[in-house]
Amino acid sequence: MNEPTVEGRKLSRSFGWLALLGTLLVIAGVIGLVYTGVATLTSMLLFGWLLLVGGLVGLLHAIESRGTNYFWLGVVVAALNIAAGVVVIKHPEGTAEALTMFAALLFLTGGVFRLVGSVVVRGPQMGWTLLQGAFGLLLGLLVLFDWPHSSLYVLGCFFSLALLFDGLGLIAFGLGGRRIVSMVSGRLDETGPPSDEPITSPEDERK
């Protein structure tokens, strides 16, 4: 078996693993959309553990760089990340409520700015910008009027949609990569391995 075929099979196997990972993410995203409450708590716990681990790693880096001008800044940032991670892990429901309120305010302010900006500027994309602003404003009002009950499903829905679209992207990338590798491997099999014989010109053959 020649070397290009072996490398092609390795690449095809790697792209297959990416497609499999994408399939798992899609399944997790669909399950999260069905059980948004569980997805919300799961996303909050993951967020808390990421803060906690990131704070511990930042603290280790700060200790290694002691004596520098950024030592105390690194310690303070790491301590804040650790404290925030502990709070999120101990109180995931309260954190979800706070983040949902923050998301609703972001939707509201973003929608208002888009609406006002599109009316003032009146650019070529005015209609699309107005639609985006109206959608953001409506979404923010819906989340805000249903708060704190909306915190049970809003973040979980966003988290599940992110998993779903990331999974679809990985599936497309993996299948597309496998298709390209198979096409290149087929071309190499048709042409055969490169010959090691020296290229001779007609003048050399006459000699």
Tell me briefly what this model is.
By secondary structure, the chain is an all-alpha fold. It has helices spanning 3-34, 36-64, 71-90, 92-121, 126-145, 154-191, 202-206.
Structure commentary:
The protein is an all-alpha fold and 207 residues long. It has seven helices and no strands. The chain is extended, with a radius of gyration of 27 Å.
Q: Please state roughly what percent of the residues sit in beta strands, choosing from under 5%, 5-15%, 15-25%, 25-35%, 35-45% or over 45%.
A: under 5%
Low-pLDDT stretches are none
Structural class: mainly alpha
Indicate the overall shape.
Answer: extended
Biggest sheet: strands, sense, closure?
Answer: none
Q: Figure out the total of helices.
A: 7
Helix content: over 70%
Distance between the termini: 37 Å
- Radius of gyration, CA atoms, in whole angstroms: 27 Å
**Number of β-strand runs:** 0
Written as H for each helix and E for each strand, in order along the chain, the element string is HHHHHHH
What do the pLDDT scores average to? 77
For the structure shown, list the relevant keywords.
207 residues; mainly alpha; extended
